[in-house]
Design a protein that fits this description.
- The protein is an alpha/beta fold.
- The protein has a single domain, classed as Rossmann fold (3-Layer(aba) Sandwich).
- It has 8 helices and 8 strands, in the order H-E-H-H-E-H-E-E-E-H-E-H-E-H-E-H.
- The protein has a 6-stranded parallel β-sheet with strand order 3-2-1-6-7-8, with helices on both faces. It has a two-stranded antiparallel sheet with strand order 4-5.
C-alpha cells in the first residue's frame, strides 16, 4: 500500500525515442497503440509529461496526421526534420538524429522529476542514464532487448524491461 502512495507523489516524466520503439516492436511483429501507451503511463506511473522524439518528413501527410493524433492524445512532440542521403552502396538512408534533442530535454527538465521512464536502448544514452543514477533518480528503461545495447542492459542502478512485457497492454490491433 505504501508503494501506491509513493507513486502518486513521485514526479515522473517519460522520454520516448520513437524510432527505437517503432522498429523494436516491428522487429517482434507488432505495433504500439499510442493511445494505450499514453493511458498506461498516466495511470500506472502518474506521468506528468510524456515526450515523443521523432523525425518529420516534408509532404508526408500520413505522418503529419499521425503526429496530430499523438498531440491530441497528449504527447509532447519534439520533431526534427528527416535528412535523406545516399550511402556509398547507393542505398538511401533516412535519419532524424533525435538523440541530442532527447538528451537536451531530459537534462533541461531534470529538476522537475524524480522518476524517469526511458524508451530507448541506444548505447549512447548510457552517459545520461548513469547521470540519472548519480542524481538519485529512479530510472526505468523499456526497449526491445535484442536491439538494446549491452551498456544499457548492464547499467547498475536502473531497471531494464524488455518492451514485450508491455505488449499485452499496448498492442495495436488491426481494425
Amino acid at each position: 500500500m505504501g508503494n501506491k502512495v509513493n507513486q502518486k507523489i513521485k514526479p515522473t516524466y517519460a522520454f520516448i525515442d520513437a524510432a527505437n520503439i517503432i522498429y523494436g516492436t516491428r522487429d517482434e511483429g507488432w505495433k504500439v497503440d499510442f493511445a494505450k501507451l499514453y493511458k498506461y503511463l498516466k495511470e500506472r506511473y502518474k506521468c506528468r509529461k510524456i515526450f515523443y522524439f521523432a523525425g518529420v518528413e516534408e509532404n508526408n501527410e500520413k505522418q503529419a496526421k499521425f503526429y496530430k493524433v499523438l498531440q491530441k492524445i497528449g504527447f509532447g512532440l519534439v520533431l526534427r526534420k528527416v535528412k535523406i542521403f545516399k550511402q556509398e552502396d547507393g542505398k538511401q538512408v533516412r535519419k532524424a538524429n533525435c538523440d541530442v534533442d532527447l538528451t537536451f530535454y531530459a537534462m533541461k527538465l531534470i529538476e522537475k522529476y524524480q522518476r524517469v521512464l526511458f524508451f530507448s536502448g541506444d548505447g549512447d544514452f548510457d552517459v545520461l542514464l548513469s547521470y540519472y543514477v548519480q542524481q538519485k533518480k529512479e530510472v526505468l528503461v523499456y526497449s526491445n532487448s535484442k536491439r538494446t545495447a549491452r551498456e544499457i542492459k548492464t547499467l547498475k542502478g536502473i531497471c531494464f524491461n524488455d518492451l514485450k512485457v508491455l505488449k499485452p497492454i499496448i498492442i495495436r490491433y488491426k481494425k
